[in-house]
Design a protein that fits this description.
By secondary structure, this protein is an alpha/beta fold. The protein has helices spanning 2-29, 126-140, 167-175, 185-197, 225-234, 252-264, 274-287, and strands spanning 44-48, 62-74, 88-92, 95-97, 99-105, 110-117, 147-153, 157-164, 207-214, 237-243, 268-269, 291-296, 307-314, 320-323, 327-329.
C-alpha cells in the first residue's frame, strides 16, 4: 500500500508539472489584466471572459476597450446620420486602430449636469438664464429614462438638485437660485463629474453631458483647469458651454469655455440676445440625440494611467466634421 501511495503521488506531481508547463505560454500570450471595476477606472472599459466553477482551474482573459461617442455634421452644422462603420477610421497616437463595434446612437438615456454660474458677474441676465434652462429641462428630460441635476457655483459649488427625472423638481431648483459671490467654475465641473456623472454603468449605455452657463472667469476654485478637464475625460462627459458675456468683445473667460467644449467633443455658444440663448439650448437638445458610438481595442495596449490622444475621421470626406473628445485616460495596472 505504501508503494502504491508513493507511485500515485509521483503521478500527481508529474501531471501538475505538465499543466504548469502548458499554462506558462498561455499566460504569456494573455493581454494585461484589467483594473478593478468602479468609477476610478476611466473611459477604457474592460470585458472579462466567463469563469469556470472551480477556482483552481480558472483562466481569465481581459480585453480592454475604449468607447468613443461622437457627432458628425457638414460644414453648415447639419447632422449627418446615415454613415456606417466602413465610413470611419480611428487613430491613436497617429496609429490606425481596428473598430470592434459601431452603432448609430439616437436614443441613449441621458445623464445631464446643469451647471449655473450664480456669481455677481452674471446678475444682469440671470432671470432669463433661469427661464431658458427650465425650458431646456422640460424639452430634453424624458421621465423614466433621463436624469438631470442642477449645480450652482459662486464661491463654492453646490448640488441644488440631485440626479432626477422630475422636471418639476429641477425647474424649482433652478428658479430658487440667487446670484452672489465669486466663481468656482473648475470645482463645479470636477464635482459634477467625479461625484455624480460617473455613476450608472456600463458607461457606454448612457450619454453624459454638462451644460454650463457662465462667463468663464474662474477666481475661486481649489482645483485647476487641467484637473477639471481630466475628471471630465475620466467620466466620459461632453461639456457644452453657454457664455454670459454680451459685450461682443472676446474675453479670457470665453477662451476657457471654448477650451472645455472643444476638448470634450462639445460646443461653445456665445449668445448676444435672449433669442440666441434659447436657440443655444435647442441646439444642444438636438445634438444629444444624434451621435455615433464605437469601440476599439488600443494597439499597442498601454495600461499606464496616462492620457492617449485619439482622432476619428470620415474616410475621404473633408466636407464633414467629426466632433469627439480628443482622447482618454487609460487604466493603470
Amino acid at each position: 500500500m505504501v508503494g502504491e501511495s508513493i507511485i500515485e503521488d509521483a503521478r500527481m506531481k508529474y501531471c501538475l508539472a505538465t499543466l504548469l508547463c502548458l499554462a506558462v505560454p498561455l499566460a504569456a500570450q494573455a493581454p494585461p489584466a484589467a483594473p478593478p471595476s468602479g468609477p476610478s477606472r476611466g473611459p477604457a472599459q474592460a470585458k472579462q471572459a466567463p469563469l469556470d466553477e472551480d477556482p483552481a482551474s480558472r483562466i481569465t482573459l481581459d480585453v480592454t476597450r475604449v468607447n468613443m461617442l461622437f457627432t458628425v455634421s457638414d460644414k453648415k452644422g447639419r447632422f449627418v446620420t446615415d454613415l456606417n462603420q466602413n465610413d470611419f477610421e480611428i487613430f491613436e497616437a497617429k496609429k490606425p486602430q481596428n473598430i470592434l463595434e459601431f452603432t448609430a446612437e439616437t436614443d441613449l438615456p441621458l445623464r445631464i449636469g446643469i451647471l449655473i454660474d450664480t456669481s455677481n458677474s452674471i446678475r444682469e441676465r440671470f432671470r432669463f438664464q433661469q427661464d431658458a434652462a427650465t425650458d431646456f429641462i422640460n424639452t430634453v428630460v424624458r421621465p423614466g429614462e433621463d436624469k438631470a441635476m442642477v449645480v450652482s457655483f459662486d464661491s463654492n459649488a453646490e448640488l441644488v438638485s440631485d440626479l432626477t427625472d422630475s422636471t418639476d423638481q429641477l425647474s424649482k431648483a433652478i428658479h430658487n437660485l440667487r446670484p452672489g459671490g465669486g466663481t468656482a467654475l473648475y470645482d463645479a465641473i470636477y464635482f459634477a463629474c467625479k461625484e455624480k456623472l460617473m455613476g450608472d454603468q456600463p458607461r457606454d449605455k448612457f450619454r453624459r453631458a454638462i451644460v454650463m452657463l457662465s462667463d468663464g472667469e474662474d477666481n475661486d476654485s481649489r482645483y485647476s483647469r487641467e484637473q477639471a478637464l481630466e475628471m471630465a475625460h475620466k467620466a466620459d462627459v461632453v461639456i457644452y458651454t453657454i457664455s454670459t458675456n454680451i459685450s461682443r468683445i472676446p474675453t479670457d473667460g470665453d477662451k476657457i469655455l471654448r477650451y472645455f467644449a472643444e476638448e470634450t467633443g462639445g460646443l461653445a455658444f456665445f449668445p448676444f440676445k435672449s433669442q440666441d440663448l434659447a436657440q443655444s439650448f435647442e441646439n444642444i437638445a438636438n445634438e444629444l440625440r444624434h451621435q455615433y458610438n464605437l469601440f476599439y481595442r488600443p494597439e499597442p495596449l498601454r495600461a499606464d494611467g496616462l492620457y492617449h490622444a485619439v482622432d476619428i475621421r470620415v474616410k475621404g470626406r473633408k466636407d464633414l466634421v467629426v466632433r469627439a473628445r480628443h482622447g482618454y485616460y487609460a487604466p493603470k495596472l
